[in-house]
């Protein structure tokens, strides 16, 4: 368990006694969980009617893996999390190496997942969660250990040493994440977005001042005790002025990518296949909000993943690969959106795509909140410059609807597009739809030649 208090400069200092005192009130939360806990939220496994019961073969294992299997089965049985089974179900198991060199036992539930009725419990959007911490200086991160039970016989898995079934909920099953998120939303319902956000088993507490922080931390720990959850102390941090959460470093300064993830991107070898390319694009795409014109920069690489495109590593691919790595290793710190300050949206229709920046003034500086870009279809490429510029405004406003609708803001663009659209005697169906949406917003248009690139260049110069 980490009990950390960090100064504004990021240096560890002595934790204030009021914070240490709150954590010390809950030693039971850090105990190792055992057995089954009755909970309000119960995970049920509903099978599609008429489905055949899946039963996979036992995967072969090395002597070292068999030793690990025996040890993990013994530990899980002793904790009361699994038990011997006589179920007709039986999924295979395998081991996946962890970073520390140890092995994690995984159940291959692909056959079972294919016949489970899918639920519709949504997971929260990560970008919307991160927006909630604006203006806060003190953070805590709590990692949970879980356990739900029902329909245990369907979770059975085959091993060299017999058939077992889970008594608690394994995360390898589909719908499990939705059940867990639903439980978290119910537990923290009255406090979500006020001083706590939850993404599955990762809880973030955020506060503006230390006195608030102490109260917030105590409330969260009290609720976890009330609902009989246990905490993974080795992954918890308390009383931080900057903290890693969901792949981002959060501080009063703003938001930036996790340095470890950035290092992974920097050192990523050139992809040799579609699968490797998708992995690279998955990693960089997670941080696309930090990259100007991500979609057009990545276009040669995304084209390689198409079924109708042969794998050929061209100079354009190499340039795109290097550009993305450079952009993310020289990223800027994004400003967390302040609802009390006006937004400035700067748009442009570039050769093959549209680009936009959402920004806010902070003292003398205009700081980016987020970048957005999108490739244009062949139909839109055939349109006039004014139509493309109008499309850029339309996409930017709809993309940032949650920030902009119902509040006044400024739109900056290269062309007098909005004035042009009001002079057209005949408008196409698409233009009418875009205009109908645009006119729902309250903004002041500003026409400044070359403004998009000028704004972006200014952001780069400030970093």
From TrEMBL:
Keywords: Multifunctional enzyme
InterPro entries registered for this protein in UniProt: DNA/RNA_pol_sf (IPR043502), Retrovirus_Pol_polyprotein (IPR050951), Rev_trsase/Diguanyl_cyclase (IPR043128), RT_dom (IPR000477), RT_RNaseH_2 (IPR041577)
Origin superkingdom: Eukaryota
Molecular-function GO term, any one: catalytic activity
A Pfam family: RVT_1
Reverse transcriptase domain boundaries: 96-250
UniProt cross-references to SUPFAM superfamilies, sorted A to Z: DNA/RNA polymerases
Domain Reverse transcriptase/retrotransposon-derived protein RNase H-like: 313-411
Protein name: Reverse transcriptase domain-containing protein
Organism: Chara braunii
